[in-house]
Amino acid sequence: MTRTVGIAGLGAIGLPLARALDAGVPGLTLAAVAARDEVKAVARLSSFRAPPPVVNLADLAECDIVVEAAPAAVFERVANTAIEEGKVFVPCSVGALLPRMYLVRRAQQTGARIVVPTGALLGLDAVRAAAEGPIHSVSIETRKPPMGLIGAPHLEKHGIDVMDLIQPLLVFDGNALDAAAGFPANVNVAAALALAGIGPIRTQVQIWADPGVTRNIHTIRVEAEAARFSMTIENVPSAENPKTGQLTPLSMLACLRGLVSTLKVGS
Fold first, then answer.
1. Whole-number Å distance between alpha carbons of 54 and 105
2. pLDDT at 83 over 90
3. Are 67 and 150 contained in the same domain?
4. What confidence tens digit (pLDDT) does each residue in 192-220 have?
5. Are residues 175 and 94 part of one domain?
6. Which is the catalytic residue, given 136, 154, 158, 218?
7. Is 218 left (phi over 0), alpha (psi -120 to 50) or beta?
8. Quick one: 115 and 133 in the same domain?
């Protein structure tokens, strides 16, 4: 049985994902996309083997699986329509889900599923396993080139200038819920970690603007009754959007494959 996929957004995540689906993924068909600029979207899809129609956000819910890879400002519109129609909703803007957990309760009522991909992080399987028992602490330290943090609401609110840095600057130290609000385009990894483990209030986050790095670096540390572990991943930023790592669209694709694969590796 082939399942249809609709993608909201054709940027640094949505476009590579759409290309991969167009090239062919067993069990999945790219059926529709939605984008802010329809003319640009049609042009970007023109080289596809089977260009999907460009539709309104609400019409994506006609697909079996709705992928949100759009600006966080439209997250709620995409999520609501998919969940109300009882579809599988795969969010990229995971940070936007943290203050909207009512969507999970609504999905329980409508029969929808919310499937959070691993994204640019690693070790979520280990965190989820550890969370089946007591976890004492979970933290994540994120270091990004300063350009990858430009425009974050937290920086603008507090007047933090990350340009022309000559040494690393700690720009945020707090919990995952506050990090998601202050850096909606930067800390989806922290949100996913929080959902996999002990929640957004107890999950601690540090964000560094680091002029000495060229990659988005995430280090997670977990203290649990069953295990103690730490992991670091260095993601190459997307050329189109330095806030996003190149691994993210690949993770989204792997997530979609897992929804239809006969053999699925990992919890």
1. 30
2. yes
3. no
4. 999 999 999 999 999 999 999 999 999 99
5. no
6. 218
7. beta
8. no
Number of domains in the chain: 2
- Residue 86 token pair: 């009882």
**114 within 8 A of 89, measured Cβ to Cβ:** yes
Q: Are 148 and 121 in contact (CB under 8 A)?
A: no
Average pLDDT, the chain: 94
Q: Is residue 158 flagged as an active site residue? A: no
Structural domain contains residue 242: no
Q: pLDDT by residue (tens digit) across 14-33?
A: 999 999 999 999 999 999 99
- Distances in Å between the Cα of 251 and the Cα atoms of 123, 192, 254 are 13, 13, 5
For residue 214, what are the domain limits? 124-235
CATH number at residue 131: 3.30.360.10
Q: Answer for the pair 135, 225: CB distance below 8 angstroms, yes or no.
A: yes
